[in-house]
């Protein structure tokens, strides 16, 4: 845990959040500034600064985040219509909380994102 980390404080129950899924190593809660009808953040319970640190330091935990994101999508009823999983890494990506977190976005038609 990091004493000054917003998401660590949410995990510890010091700051309220609308929790939608709990796992042994993960916690998922609604984003307070949603960018889609469904916008949930999935975070590891332990502190890792970003996705790269998470993958390097605890690769199995990265799997747990993606699995939890799938459970969130299922419980939110967006598995059939589709959803997007996003990690923002670094200031140019718009990241403001330096605790690895995976965005689950869906529930509506999302704009095109890059080229496939």
Automatic annotation (TrEMBL):
Annotated motif Histidine triad motif, positions: 99-103
Active site, per annotation: 101
Source taxon at top rank: Bacteria
SUPFAM superfamilies linked to this entry: HIT-like
Gene3D superfamilies noted in UniProt: HIT-like
GO molecular function, one term: catalytic activity
HIT domain ranges (all copies): 6-116
Annotated protein name in UniProt: HIT domain-containing protein
């Amino acid at each position: 845990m990091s004493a000054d980390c917003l998401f660590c404080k949410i995990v510890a129950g010091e700051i309220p959040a609308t929790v939608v899924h709990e796992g042994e190593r993960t916690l998922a809660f609604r984003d307070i500034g949603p960018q889609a009808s469904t916008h949930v953040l999935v975070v590891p319970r332990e502190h890792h600064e970003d996705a790269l640190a998470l993958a390097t330091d605890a690769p199995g935990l990265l799997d747990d985040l993606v699995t939890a994101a799938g459970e969130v999508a299922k419980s939110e009823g967006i598995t059939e219509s589709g959803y997007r999983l996003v990690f923002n890494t670094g200031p140019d990506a718009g990241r403001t909380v330096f605790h690895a977190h995976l965005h689950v976005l869906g529930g509506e038609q999302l704009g095109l994102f890059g080229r496939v």
